[in-house]
Amino acid sequence: MTADTHPPHPPHPPYEAAAGHGAGAPLVLDRRDGPHGEVVLRRHGELLQIIANGCFLMDTSDGRSERLLVRAALEELDAGGGRPSPSVLIGGLGVGFSLAEAAAEPRWGRITVVEREEAVIDWHRDGPLGEISRGALADPRVRIVPDGLLAHLTGGGPGGGEPYDALCLDVDNGPDWTVTEDNGSLYTPAGLAACARRLAPGGVLAVWSAQPSRAFGEALRNAGFTRVRTEEVPVARGVPDVVHLATRPA
């Protein structure tokens, strides 16, 4: 646990420079053109990688920080007094680590995953990423919602309007480096207000980031969230991955 004291640093490089974890040349397993651009699933050695519009998003090499995203949210709920069978929304299916973490915890009640890329959902249901998420997808608590995160949060998507005890968001490389330009609205005062409205009183917002963001911590406080803090996961090179945590007042 640490305060938001790290200076900003340049965003990650394109995947050609960032994703050197496998052996030999990467193999493209699927490539799709969707409403938000191109998404690619690759195998690089033993790793599976997701690339969006030419930028490396994530791979199956580690997953500690993606699992921390969900685990820290539950711990923060407990610190605030706890509640039975809390509900969680996971924003972004990714390679499935966050979903797997949630499904492995019997204390979670309703588990909703919002994912806007149909290709990513397909890669889990019928493709190679099922090796991570297959057990979780069979869990009766789990529901996959094919929708944009902000649309779901504002009530425009399936199941719109239902409150959550925790929002665990991992749809970008962080508040300071979004995958697509329209994602930036999620981190604005209006976007954070939408998050707060979908949280039950005392609910927790957890946001994954590839780097700390002092500005985002201030934005959370300005939006009325309390107990704003970060947890870090050291990485092999560069600054640690970060989970920003904040609580909606009861």
Give the structure's gist in a few sentences.
The chain is of the alpha/beta class and 250 residues long. The chain has helices at 15-18, 64-79, 97-103, 118-125, 130-137, 149-153, 189-198, 214-222, and strands spanning 27-34, 37-44, 47-52, 55-59, 88-91, 111-114, 142-145, 164-169, 199-209, 226-233, 241-247. The strands form two sheets. It has a seven-stranded mixed sheet, sandwiched between helices. A four-stranded antiparallel sheet has the order 1-2-3-4.
Structure commentary:
The chain has 8 helices and 11 strands. With 250 residues, the protein is an alpha/beta fold. Helices cover 27% and strands 28% of the residues. The protein has helices at residues 15-18, 64-79, 97-103, 118-125, 130-137, 149-153, 189-198, 214-222, and strands at residues 27-34, 37-44, 47-52, 55-59, 88-91, 111-114, 142-145, 164-169, 199-209, 226-233, 241-247. Keywords: Polyamine biosynthesis. InterPro entries: SAM-dependent_MTases_sf. This is Spermidine synthase. It comes from Streptomyces chitinivorans.
Fraction of residues in helices?
25-40%
- Any low-confidence stretches, pLDDT <50, length ≥5? 1-22
Distance between the first and last residues' Cα = 23 Å
What structural class should be given to the helix and strand makeup?
alpha/beta
Rounded to an integer in angstroms, the radius of gyration calculated over CA atoms is 17 Å
Look at the structure and give the mean pLDDT: 87
Order of adjacent strands in the largest pleated sheet: 7-6-5-8-9-11-10
Q: Main beta sheet, described?
A: 7 strands, mixed
Output the number of helix runs: 8
Shape: globular
The portion of residues forming beta strands comes to 25-35%
Question: What's the total number of strands?
Answer: 11
| SSE string, helices as H and strands as E | HEEEEHEHEHHEHEHEHEE
Protein name: Spermidine synthase
Region (Disordered): 1-31
Biased composition (Low complexity): 15-26
Keywords: Polyamine biosynthesis
